[in-house]
Design goal:
The structure holds two protein chains of two kinds.
Chain A (H helix, E strand, L loop, with lengths): L14 E3 L2 E6 L2 E6 L5 E4 L1 H12 L4 H8 L5 H13 L3 E3 L23 E5 L33 H14 L5 E7 L7 H17 L3 E8 L6 H9 L3 E5 L4 H7 L9 H14 L6 E6 L6 H12 L3 E6 L12 H23 L7 H12 L13 E4 L4 E3 L13 E2 L3 E2 L1 H10 L14 H4 L4 H8 L10 H21 L10
Parallel strand pairs in A: 6-7, 6-12, 7-8, 8-9, 9-10, 10-11
Antiparallel strand pairs in A: 1-5, 2-3, 3-4, 12-13, 13-14, 14-15
Helix pairs in contact in A: 2-3, 4-5, 10-15, 11-15
Chain B lengths: L4 E2 L2 H13 L27 H4 L19 H12 L22 H4 L9
Classes of the chains: A alpha/beta, B mainly alpha.
Chain lengths: ~500, ~120
Amino acid sequence: MTMIETQSVAHTGALVAREAHRFEAAGRSYLYLVPSAAVFGLDGPTRAVIDALHERPRQPDELVDTLASEFDRADVRAAVDELVGAQAVGRVARESPAPLPAPNIIPLTEVPLTTLVVNVTNQCNLSCEYCYEYGEDKIVDTENGKKPKFMSEETARQSVEFMLDASGTNDVARMTFFGGETLLNLPVLKKTIPYARRRGSEVGKHVEFSLTTNATLLDADTIEFLAENDIGVTVSIDGPRDMQNRFRVFHDGRGSYDVVLPKIKALLARHTSRPVGARVTLTSEVLDVVRIFRHLTEEIGFHDVGFAPVTTSPNLPHALGRSGFDQMLAQFRELADDFLEAALANRPHGFTNVRDTLEEIHKGASKAYPCGAGIGLLGVATDGDVALCHRFAGSDEHKMGTVATGIDQTQRQDFLEKHHIDHKTDCNVCWARPMCAGGCYHEAQVRYGDTTAANLHYCDWIRDWTDTCLKVYGEIAERNPAYLRRFDA
Amino acid sequence: MRHLKAVNEKARTIEQVVAIAQGHADVVALQAQSTGPPQQEGPHIPLGCSFVFSPGWEADRNGGTAGLCQPVERDLFDCHLGCFWPAHVPDQMNHAPDWTDKCAAAQKDWRKIDLIFP
């Protein structure tokens, strides 16, 4: 739907439809404008104008004449004015094509750190075949003794100081513990959390904690510690027994389902102050999203479930191919319908993939970067090296500094300039770029060996999924607009 | 906008910016005079010019007379009610006691203050 406003001389001054994605929901047509990410509902005249301009650019008078049999001329003119105002319609340049403008990259000012992800260990008591930390396509050398297996108390304390300092003017700093299996280094967590609380209160900041675990090491004491300290918990789990045991196995090949199930139930029963979420990795062999969701919410009792396709090079057997992405989309759509039904009845629904996307649509997020890595989020390796995020933490190639010495701001700035969406030429013709911005840096590194690459292998999936979420948004906006107030800024 | 319906927050922002740029934004009574880029402004809250030495009837903020107390509704509620400045208003004690009854909030309802004919 992209039309460049420098067409043949015959069209000079003509009206032309600008970049947008059209979708239908609740009996109404909508436009998702690119790059503003504004969502406008269309009426008869505006829809007809857009349709006519999609056929070809038209002079204003010709457009009014064409639509005169259907609509009042004044209405068509008013509709055109509004579409021009919203930048859904433009005019073909009168002059010869202007040179393409330079990318509009706004120099970054110092951005305060929101979240620091701390890899307290690179060891794990499971050996999930697909794990990016240990798989064939890993980018961090976790073996050969190059990196310490466990973060020391000293490094953890330095991480706290680094976080409090880098959080600048923010009142809240968030620390997320990660691994390996995070709970293998529980002693350091138990020292670090009270230390961070104390130091936070000394400098006038509230510190929030969260962690990700495979749940194998949860016991009554640990659960008590997590609940008492109000630590947000995400459990990595892939679903019912057969799916969980397919990849999430102990070193001897034993499945982990029967070990984790009673532990997760005990956690959910005791830890009620913050929603405990499940995080599912989808692979070519574990793709039954609806069954997984029902099992995790209805049978186990998770509040939230988020799904992500496995990050891997394409030739490994568990990688998602084209048909895998299609199957995932069909399943996601089924769950999105479920979500919509719940939203219309003001019932909660734990499918976080759709909820998070709806929030971004509601706010009109138009991203220059796919995520906050290197901006408001950084990752720390076991030895204190700082990188973009937890997935890069420990990779010498992607090191940006250390928690003891701080990060190289020039290097960070350089990274952000190179990775701006305007440099991803493939993305410049995609209507979904305000939401996607090229996708995960780590995925790009694993697939293409280059963090600046756009993740072209899942473009169709991103567009189809964004379209699905836009339709859900349109339905809710028309049928239960009050629901969307929860997403207001 | 009559034909386009702004649905998300970004669309509402665009709608507001367009309305202001095209001069279609509603006139808010008692509003401060605009300098700089177009933006929706809130009402001027009357405080009394003698208290704060704000630009009043004798000189505007630049010391000249081009931007004196205006528009008219600002005179009315700022000077006449707040400072008892004898503006040219009807006699609200005897002749037109309900003259401003329909004007519950001056910034929105100022159009409802009607002319009075003796």
